Amino acid sequence: MSALTRVKQPLRRAISPSLSFNRYRTVQSLPIAVYCNKRCASTDASVPDQAISQTPEFIQTMLAANQQFIETFHGAGLPWWASIVTATVCLRSALTLPIAVYQQRAIGRMLAAAPIVQSWGETLKNQLAREGKIKGWEYERYNLELQKQYRAKVKQIYTQNDCRPIKSFLLPWFQIPLFVCMSFSIRGMVLAPETFESLSSGGFAWVTDLTARDPTMIFPIAIGMSNFLNVELNSMNARGKNQSFRQKTLQNVFRGLSFAIIPIAAQAPIALCLYWTTSSLYSVAQNVCFRVPTVRSFLKLPIVNKPSTTNA
């Protein structure tokens, strides 16, 4: 029996919109639905095969591959909780870490070009001010010409320094799909006790049943705090600079979402919380390491100089 065939039933339960639950409802506002443990969930026996067939084949394949990847570590002798943690670290290291390093290099090139852009912008203002005074330009004409020449020069400087702003936003396009696929894969495993029966005893310490919720709220709180720490680490570079209203608003929104995820994670099975916690802590470790000069030098990342301070 192939891996895709063996996990077809769990995937049907993970994807099917016909799932019904006795005590907890799906959180519709998030891309990932989180649910209570398997004892709180019931599936409709009349779910048609059309539900799984309507899902694109490549998504079914990705979810099946994720489940098989986790099972590989479990088959090697690791307990389920360690298998989930190990699979998460391996996938993040193999898929998102190289993109993060590449993105950091792109950001470094843009930061290196920023003083050139700023200096040239001041020079352009003075040049056009003199030219406009001679030619009798109105302010609207001066401003239009300034914006036109400024954009052209910035494009030229970025091209010369191999700077493309889009490269500074590559990571989410890889990290979010991985996060969603892994979450649905683990959810499908939790909802298939006949296939992954040992999940109910594959935990550790106080969380032996990975299909149940965390009664201590340790994992949900850890998820919220690690996400909040990631937001602060990512916004740390912008501190001390003139931030736009939009930037400040986005930072505050992400801070709020970090804590809003806590009650949602409280309804999720521990297996899913374990993945979310591991992924969030991986991001924290990654962001911290990217701030260490030795690590940046090893990865050939530009060294970020701290702003100099002078005593009054």
Automatic annotation (TrEMBL):
The keyword Transcription does not apply. It comes from Mortierella isabellina. Coiled coil: none annotated. Residues 80-290 form the Membrane insertase YidC/Oxa/ALB C-terminal domain. InterPro entries: YidC/ALB3/OXA1/COX18, YidC/Oxa/ALB_C. This is Membrane insertase YidC/Oxa/ALB C-terminal domain-containing protein. One of its GO terms (biological process) is protein insertion into mitochondrial inner membrane from matrix. Keywords: Membrane, Transmembrane, Transmembrane helix. The keyword Transmembrane helix applies. One of its GO terms (molecular function) is membrane insertase activity. It holds the Pfam family 60KD_IMP. Belongs to the OXA1/ALB3/YidC family. It comes from the Eukaryota. The chain crosses the membrane at residues 169-190, 217-235, 256-277. It is found in: Membrane. One of its GO terms (cellular component) is mitochondrial inner membrane. It is a multi-pass membrane protein.
